[in-house]
TrEMBL record:
Gene, per the UniProt record: gpsA
Record-listed sn-glycerol 3-phosphate binding positions: K110, G141, S143, K196, D249, S259, R260, N261
Source organism phylogeny: Bacteria, Bacillati, Bacillota, Bacilli, Lactobacillales
Xref: Pfam families: NAD_Gly3P_dh_C, NAD_Gly3P_dh_N
PROSITE patterns: NAD_G3PDH
Protein name: Glycerol-3-phosphate dehydrogenase [NAD(P)+]
Subcellular location: Cytoplasm
Keywords assigned by UniProt, alphabetized: Cytoplasm, Lipid biosynthesis, Lipid metabolism, NAD, NADP, Nucleotide-binding, Oxidoreductase, Phospholipid biosynthesis, Phospholipid metabolism
Active site (catalytic residues): K196
InterPro entries on file: 6-PGluconate_DH-like_C_sf, 6PGD_dom2, G3P_DH_NAD-dep, G3P_DH_NAD-dep_C, G3P_DH_NAD-dep_N, NAD(P)-bd_dom_sf
Protein's organism: Levilactobacillus senmaizukei DSM 21775 = NBRC 103853
GO biological processes: carbohydrate metabolic process; glycerol-3-phosphate biosynthetic process; glycerol-3-phosphate catabolic process; glycerophospholipid metabolic process; phospholipid biosynthetic process
Residues the record lists as binding substrate: K110, R260, N261
Length: 337
């Protein structure tokens, strides 16, 4: 099949997913709000700020005009940072209504909306009226853009309440090195995807402070336990958290310097100031905002999330990291499950 697909957001992940789709023979329109970036993508076929040493196929065309990118689309893939999802979806909705289109809606972003605590598929379904879309799906899993760029083996999951939509997304992306499973648990997939970034900040910080493998494994395991507690409180299937978008993504993000969240944590652990870390990263560090949303959500729902709370206190209340770790370790002993 060859579909017309608009990919919105030309950062590291959006541009590489666009490249996978282009390679699969789809008519891909990669949209960015930055005209200089569009110019670079269309003339040099590079995206140097976001992905180093990678050349895109000339068949992949970038657009700065959103309406043009959406012409006759069969599917729209959102890969902008979480904080931009609602505003971009609002613009998309207006254009789809004017063009009388009803594409599949997919997103590959990882976060929770601030203040509303909504998952991104909920935000998309709210902003794009049912008359102008088919189902909403999410594609997620352990997938650093840098690894996909060099065609390293990558497995992800496509989740949707509509089994047909999940299969559609699976078919769009599958290649010899990019394998896609389907999943009906949208809640579990989106919560796992968003909250693993908090844990990556934590394991990065442990690394920066000089802690070893035991400490990092402990943080990832107990981190997954609290993510699972929050997710199941919303009705997620506990099995999802031992799948690709749960333990898979915690491993890839919580152990790798390819992860911006891990790197940010590492730099904080080494004593750098948060503002400096954000400044020189130059790309989105989703875990920072997600820590706030998840902490507030855990308070609101009465779900125990001690690691998220500790990371929240370090980032938002200026608590000393070593003190936060010591306080976590001195909590009263309890049963593992
Ligand atoms: N990188 C990866 O390996 C993976 C990332 N993800 C997720 O994908 C999402 C995007 O991440 P990623 O591509 O890495 O992020 P990047 O920071 O690399 O790129 C984000 C892109 O979105 C643009 N952007 C920012 N705000 C807006 C806006 N309001 N309207 C339109 N475009 C905007 C940015 O432009 P500018 O920089 O000029 O602001 C940039 O081009 C995140 O949720 C991330 O968690 C998921 C899996 C893997
Ligand atoms: O989600 C990712 C890999 O699955 C990428 O993580 P970072 O946003 O921390 O780079």
């Amino acid at each position: 099949m060859s579909e017309k697909i608009a990919v919105l957001g030309a950062g590291s992940w959006g541009s590489i997913l666009a490249s996978v789709l282009d390679e699969n023979g789809h008519d891909v329109r990669l949209w960015s709000y930055n005209p200089d970036q569009v110019e670079e993508l269309n003339t040099k076929h590079t995206n140097s700020r976001y992905i180093k040493d990678f050349t895109y196929s000339p068949s992949l065309v970038a657009y700065s005009d959103l309406a043009q990118a959406l012409t006759d689309v069969d599917a729209v893939l959102f890969v902008v940072p979480t904080k931009a999802i609602r505003s971009v979806a609002g613009q998309v909705a207006t254009i789809l209504a004017a063009k009388n289109l009803q594409p599949q809606i997919i997103h590959a972003s990882k976060g929770i909306e601030q203040k509303t605590y909504k998952r991104l598929s909920q935000v998309l379904a709210e902003e794009i009226p049912a008359a102008n879309r088919k189902a909403v799906s999410v594609i997620s899993g352990p997938s650093h853009a840098e690894d996909v760029a060099r065609k390293d083996i990558t497995l992800v999951t496509a989740a949707s309440e509509s089994p047909d939509a999940a299969k559609y997304v699976q078919k769009l992306f599958m290649t010899s090195y990019f394998r896609v499973y389907t999943n009906s648990d949208v809640i579990g997939v989106e919560i796992g995807a968003a909250l693993k970034n908090i844990i990556a900040l934590g394991t990065g910080a442990l690394n920066g402070l000089g802690y070893g493998d035991n400490a990092k494994a402990a943080l990832m395991t107990r981190g997954l336990a609290e993510i699972s507690r929050l997710g199941t409180s919303f009705g997620a299937d506990p099995m999802t958290f031992i799948g690709l978008s749960g333990v898979g993504d915690i491993i890839v993000t919580g152990t790798s310097s390819n992860s911006r969240n891990w790197r940010a944590g590492d730099e904080l652990g080494r004593g750098e100031k948060l503002d400096d870390v954000i400044d020189h990263m130059g790309m989105v560090i989703e875990g920072l905002a997600t820590t706030k949303a998840a902490y507030e959500l855990s308070q609101e729902r009465g779900v125990s999330m001690p690691i998220t709370k500790a990371i929240y206190q370090v980032i938002y209340e200026g608590k000393d990291i070593r003190q936060a770790i010591s306080d976590l370790m001195q909590r009263e002993g309890r049963s593992e499950f």
